[in-house]
Amino acid sequence: MATKLFIDTGALIALKLRGDPHHQAAVRFLQEAGRRPRVISSLVLAEAYTWIRYHYGFPAAVASVEELLEGESLGLYTVVRPERQLEERAVGFIRRYTDVKLSWTDAVSFAILQESGEWEVFGFDEHFRLIGCILVPG
Questions:
Q1: pTM (2 decimals)?
Q2: How far apart, in whole angstroms, are the C-alpha atoms of residue 51 and residue 61?
Q3: Could you give the domains of the chain?
């Protein structure tokens, strides 16, 4: 089975915003990533929407989230919508890494990633290295 690609907030923002310092690397990576299962958490979508909304305004934010939901409809990736079991495991990560400022989104993402299979994380958040994930584009 192919390594799955978990798409984090930083990657979504970098892909959407040309002025982002990671934009070129993110675009290049996604073009070269090949066909493999891609997963985004609904919490990552919420975090990306909120960040874009606060920094670039409503039109950019709503366009971004509509585009992402359309991508799910087209089968470009799967959006995981966390249930209670994932949230309970997320609390475990928050308790385990008390010295790290993990967001709730990060903790739930960790729970998703530890659920099954081999993953790479498309993003720029070094926290994912805590659980042994490969962070790409690197």
A1: 0.92
A2: 8
A3: 4-136 (3.40.50.1010)
